Amino acid sequence: MTDTTPLLEATGIDHDYGTVSVLRDVSVTIECGRVTALIGPNGAGKSTLIRDLAGLHEPTAGTITYNGPDTAREIGYLPQHPAFRPGFTALETLQFYASLVGDDETDAMAQLERVGLENAADRPVEALSGGMTRLLGIAQATIGDPPIVILDEPGSGLDPSMGLHVFDVAADLADEGIAVLLSSHDLELVEQVADDLLILADGRVAEQGSIADVRARVGGSSLRQVYEHAVGGHRDTVQVVGDHA
Amino acid sequence: MSGDVNTPSDSTRDRPTEQFGRSQSTAPGPRHILRTIIGRELRTLVRTRTFFILTLAFAAVVLGISSVSGSVQGGYVPTLVDLLTPLELLVPVVAIAFGYRAILGDAERGELDVLKTYPVSSREIVAGVYVGRAIGLLTAIVAPLVVTVLLVFVAEEEGRTLYASHSGVDSPILFGRFIVLTILFALTVLAIAIAISAVVSGTRSAIALSVVALVVLLVGFDLALVYGFSAGSIGDGSLVYALALSPLSAYRGLVFESAIVVASGTGPAAASPIASLVSLVVWTATSLGIATWVLNR
Question: Where does the record place the ABC transporter domain (chain A) (predicted)?
């Protein structure tokens, strides 16, 4: 990919919930073929930023620009706690979503295979494990081959091997040219998989750039050290994010 | 690049297609989207035991009333007279049960958020859910009424043995009108249920609001009309129009005007048919409009 124009550009994003300011002047770019990891303490505004970028709600201020190709679905999205309508199999669930972008059963099955869930195609969604449900959610996020896939804490609550598998799937998506943005608290997996880093702290961008650049700028031999340096704060105090706007 | 959207705030989303809209050439058309959503609703109804039990219970009550009361031997109009009051209660209950969680379920699971990343408008979601649920609801309601018509037909063939207190110009056409009006009433209440399912944020509030809606619908409006009439704020001349404001009164009035009064041949005006029909349509359109607006927020 020689075109360096980011697929998604967010500039000066503010997001207020009533009088509480959750995001302040956040700017971020999402580039194709790269995994961008969004990390930060609980309540730093990660999910709010993700929902803004995915178009689920409008930021209070700022600009979000999509520069990707004209397609039926521009952004795929995995919610933090994916769940599906009971009474349907995994394949039927994906068929429903696939039909919304004009795809058929073959395409739905291909997305299941992409995440390694083909053997569970006929299993009811309510009988899927937490990890399998997350994988089905990722398969859903890739329906319609969106150029951008946003995953909200895809590894949350999964055992180590399933968490690794989920991150591997995200890396594979990037290898196929998709721009992947994922949020996570698992810094080891982020370090293994992510190309770029966006550290949010107190609703602001604390650090941003490729992992190598951020590490060189901030210092520290591991991502954990980079994270602690960037986020700061005290471990024995819960950070209450969101100044009054 | 098209579609700069300036919100009331200072934010701008600059992309080929605004979310919840469709300008991409590769997106399927509205008919395909609607078919997909309707199909999902129908499969959900077929696979959910609760709806099946509800349908059986409704059929048992309708067939039980018309058979046990002996009205099927009396004819079509006596049967519809016997069924009218039970249906005034049962149709709203069944319609609310079919719709009160229709959109809420997707919202609770986060699927509504996911749908926003697809080329599907909120109008299509509401319309698809409504039509899908309506097909299931009408199947549940119309099937036992059609069986009742057949029972009356068979009883007529065997000869009437009971005195029909409502006998006048008895006709299956009058019962057909009753079925059509019951369908309209059911569709209206279902639309209200869909609005409830879009407005609420949890199952408890959905149940609470559904109960409130049922009480207002079944009792509240009628009590208000009685109070207004007795207090003199509703005059004799405007009573039939005031009755049209309530979906239940509108339905009842339409049944009286188009079936019962026709059969009896005489009687005072029970309702304004036009006003009653307009009321049902307005209730339906407003409810679906509210649901769409809530999803668009």
Answer: 8-227
